Amino acid sequence: MTEMSIRTSTSSGVRAGRSTAHADLGEDHTTRVGMITFLCSEASFFGTLIVAYITFIGSSTSPTPAEALSLPLVVAGTIALLSSSFTVHFAAGALHGGRTGAFRLWLAATIVLGALFLVGTAIEWRGLIVEHGLTISRNMFGTTYFTLVGFHGLHVSAGLVLLGLMYCLSLAGVVSQERAEGFEVVSWYWHFVDSVWVVVFTVVYWLGR
Q: What pLDDT, on the 0 to 100 scale, is given for residue 88?
């Protein structure tokens, strides 16, 4: 009787463990699919803004992109943002490897690089507004430029908030090697933001000049 009870208890425990594992896998799958769906919708959104910018290139009054845009400053910001893709990748690798200290270090570096990009954008915008008198209502260049670059900056800001939250959750022990799926999808978002900037930079600061 005792042996039968032990077997029944063990069998129930195994089934419960399997059910929990399946539930966790289901949640991970749902999270990943949700993020992929969101990123696809965001790609369509940015695609629309980029097409609008391209459509009105050359049809604006002064100041034009060639007159107003400062390439050296933007290149520096671009290097910082693209470098953050490497640091967030290293952070993800450290987390999956159980190296918590390295994870936090690479994550902090990612946050700093993203913040530097936003600072560069703010400096650039100040110059456009103060020195060139370019505002969102000045001409079609101003309208499409500030809308496109502004929404990208908003997405970078949202990404920094998420990365900062991941850092705090790591300190609290919520984000760990065993529970890394949350940071994984956040890193996808960050890579997406960086990839969008490559297209924006190419269109606005290279082809559009």
A: 98
